[in-house]
Amino acid sequence: MAPVPPQRLQTPILLGGEKAEQVRAWLTPLGFNVRVVAEEIGVASAIKMCRSVMIKGLEALTTECLSTARQYGAEDAVLASLHKSFPSMGWDADLPHYLISRVAEHGRRRAEEMEEVARTAADVGVTPHMSQAIVATQRELVECMAQQGMTYADTVPFDWTRLVDSLGG
User: Fold this and answer.
1) CA 136 – CA 8 distance, rounded (Å)
2) Do 137 and 83 reside in the same domain of the chain?
3) Are residues 104 and 21 in the same domain?
4) Which of 24, 76, 94, 156 is deepest in the core (most CB within 10 A)?
């Protein structure tokens, strides 16, 4: 339910199914941070997938928003406006770098995960417009980097403005 580093064994794990409580009893003494969320199979996965729409969506939105703003020379004004609207999020600090770095580092894998999320939404009759857009945005950034012969390691220390400038938008 979160990046494994830095929490490692304390990274939250959700369990579901008829043997979930038994698995929790085995894993908790080993130091794992597990929580039973349902007796039915699929609820824990649904929680993770629905959360991914929001987390990976925020990354994708930030990537598109700031890449566009940078091309217009408007990124400072956009970030100031976002900070004014959501002052506790960190738009005036490291949040934009962090969100876009996650796409640059893990975009291919995240796009694949979001394809599964889109299928999960469609399976219950929800049209996955946002999930499909997230797939495209996550994948596009890493494909643009690859076309430039660039890997995430080439961007460290990460600065979203340097990445956007090197990709030309």
Assistant:
1) 30
2) yes
3) no
4) 24
43 vs 24: CA distance, rounded Å: 16
Residue 15's DSSP bridge partners are: 36
Q: Tell me: the pLDDT tens digits for 20-66?
A: 999 999 999 999 999 999 999 999 999 999 999 999 999 999 999 99
Place of tokens 């579901």: 16
Residue 8 gets the label, from left (phi > 0), alpha (psi -120 to 50) or beta, of left
Judge whether residue 1 has pLDDT over 80: no
The domain containing residue 12 runs over which residues?
A: 1-41
> Look-up: residue for tokens 């409580």?
21
Structure tokens at 124: 């219950």
Same domain, 143 and 61: yes
For the stretch 100-153, pLDDT in tens is 999 999 999 999 999 999 999 999 999 999 999 999 999 999 999 999 999 999
Domain total for the chain?
A: 2
